[in-house]
Amino acid sequence: MHALEIEQLTVSFDKTPVLWDINFSLPTGRLCAVVGPNGAGKSTLLQAILGIVKPLSGTIRLLGEEARKVQARVAYVPQRSSVDWNFPISVLDVVLMGRYRKLGLFKWPKASDRDAARSILKKVGMLEYESRQISQLSGGQKQRLFIARALLQQADLFLLDEPFAGVDMATEKEILELLGKLKQEGKTLLVVHHDLSTVQNYFDWALLLNTALVASGPMEEVFHQANIFRAFGKRHALLEEVARLSGDVL
Amino acid sequence: MTSLVDFLTDSVLRGPTIGSMLMCIATALVGVILLIRKETLLGEALSHAAYPGIVGSALFASLIFKTPGADEGMSVILGAFLSASLGLFLISFLQKKVSLHSDAALCMILSLFFGVGVLLASRLQVTHAVWYKQISLYLYGQAATLVDRDMAIYAVLVLITALCVFFLYRFVQWIYFDRAFAKSVGASVRKVEFLVHFLLILSIVIGMRSVGVVLLSGMLIAPAVAARRWTSRLSMLFFLAALIGGGSAFLGNYLSVNLPLLFHRESLALPTGPMIVLVGAAISLFSLFFSLESGLIFRAYRMRAFKNRCLLENVLKRLWKEGEKREFSFSEIVHFNQLSSLSGSLLFFKMRCQGWLQRKGKGRYRLSSDGWRRASRTVRLHRLWEVYLVDYLGQHADRVHRSAEEIEHLLSYELERELTRLLKDPKKDPHKQPIPNDHESLLG
Fold first, then answer.
1. Domain A2-249 sits in which CATH superfamily?
2. How much is the ipTM here?
3. Considering CB atoms only, which of B178, B187, B237 is closest to A78?
4. Which of A61, A157, A233, B155 is the most buried (most CB within 10 A)?
5. Contact with chain B for residue A142, Cβ under 8 A
6. Quick one: which of B249, B288, B279 has its CA closest to B26?
7. Least confident of B49-58, B323-332, B395-404
8. Quick check: A14 and B184 CB within 8 A?
């Protein structure tokens, strides 16, 4: 079974294609790294899968079904730097966001929702901070908070955007263990990752991206010098130019 | 002199006072939402965009009625509502379809709409002077003309606002904290945005009568900004902002009536609307300077205190290096540290107060055990940090001293433990100097 099947996906912002004709599929139960240079469309790929950005064309199938029908079974960990950490909200309230689908509009979280959130906080070792304002957290705690929120979603497919960015070694290890546990439970994880030195140790599947797809498959098959070179090199300059031209006529 | 209670009970005063308090509570609540979505300028643009609606509705009414009647208030509210909504629609059109920068779109709509309003008003001034006089009240506000009936209308509108804020509370918090995540869990961001915009326009039409369209954005933002300085809990933020808004309105009314009486000067009779805004602005300024966590005054104080601590620890360190048994005279202490005699005396006094210097006979002092420990901890942190930079981060040993000079004053006990653990409790720094440990003295 495939947790993720993407066919001919193209996404563009303001006429500039960010993802160009992407085709790949990811088997269930894999821990997959998404690797590519800045601006390669890694975050956009996650957001397209989540339905946050609308693709120009292409189809996305999740967990064997049409993406729209199974969004509830997909959890999301955005980049830590994508939000304002001075925002007036407490740790517990952030985690409760993961319960949104069960709550819906205009319903307040009940005691059972709070208990569920607390047990997740305990899992990531942050229970003692539950009533803190988020501005008082350290970098690693902020990241664990985001992961706790995703865990509360009780999903089958997890999309994480740079969960290891700017955290200390101890937190990185803890997060990695959490991801490993999820994988053992049969969940599928798609993780945007920046540190090329750890890709091979942390993940078992790889997706190399640079606007177009460079390669995807089992780590040992696709993560080699030539592909990395292609993903980070200038090979795609011509493609980018063509993509820009095609954007102009849209 | 009119007493405080009279403002809430007197049949002439209660209309303006309670009326403008209600208005300012509504604008303050909506202002909090604007503040957390970081779109404070939208209030300014839309309140100006309401002006042509006000004038337009008067123009329209002047065709039917000869003089402004009791129902003129409602038609003005309707006109303002429609025109502000049109402004909002055009702003989002310019931003989304024409990809105009947000600030540019806001400024453009603000000036365009306000210009049209002024144009229509000058026309009205010629044809229907009575009506012109009536609508010019909305420019800078005229709370004094509010009566009990207006109070009732505004009470209902404020109630709607408060209820909406109550029901929207969690969604406003979630969506404006992390829009992408909210969208990913299927939150109806557009519905909430729509309601927020509705509330904003509602608060503008509520507020324009007491403060006026020109000054209204002040009362949208000032209470929220002031409240944000005192709390980082959203529920408290709404509550405090409403309190500050209502309080400003009350004080504004009070001062506008009582200032001339207080100083026996007719010239101090200031209109209520601007007075309310001034009070609100004063509270914001006060909060910006004096709030506990981020106020300028306290920040300056904390920085000063830190500088003093650095100086003190540096002096201690200098004395420490002379050895535990060494005794100093006051002039030696000043001389060692190249201090001026004034700051030298001050530091000397502080060290005596802290019990870091022990008197040993006439004019002779040496470090007390407390002083010694404090000094040796500073040295320890300095050298630990150097080890960290050299061994752990691979920096050159010649380059680490300056950084350690600063960091030694910053490291907490937790970080000291962490460093000790991480570096496996080193005994020597990169310059082969021993690293003192808190409890054991090196020389003794």
1. P-loop containing nucleotide triphosphate hydrolases (3.40.50.300)
2. 0.88
3. B178
4. A157
5. no
6. B249
7. B323-332
8. no
